[in-house]
Amino acid sequence: GEGIKQTVMHWLHLGEKDALLAVTVTLVLLSVLLTGFNLYSKITKFGGAGGLVPITGFANSVASPAIEYQ
Predict the structure, then answer these.
(1) What is the pLDDT of residues 12-61, one digit of tens each?
(2) Are 3 and 32 in contact (CB under 8 A)?
(3) Which of 3, 51, 39 is nearest to 23 (CA)?
(4) What is the four-CA torsion angle of 21, 6, 11, 53, rounded to 10 degrees?
(5) Nearest to 28 by CA among 38, 46, 40, 10
(6) Is the pTM value of this prediction over 0.85?
(7) What distance separates the 2 farthest-apart alpha carbons in the chain?
């Protein structure tokens, strides 16, 4: 998350508050994409609880049933 924040602040010239919002949106988007490609569960098995942090875990729990339903 910190790497994304620093990159966004440097390349897009955003303030810290806006960069933090961009980090949140990016992490949710990456989590949903990884869930869609069935990679999120493999990453959490490898990384343990680190993959279940609140923001990405929430996005996974929302996206997973939607993908299974389809």
Answers:
(1) 999 999 999 999 999 889 989 988 998 888 888 887 766 667 777 878 78
(2) no
(3) 3
(4) -40
(5) 40
(6) no
(7) 40
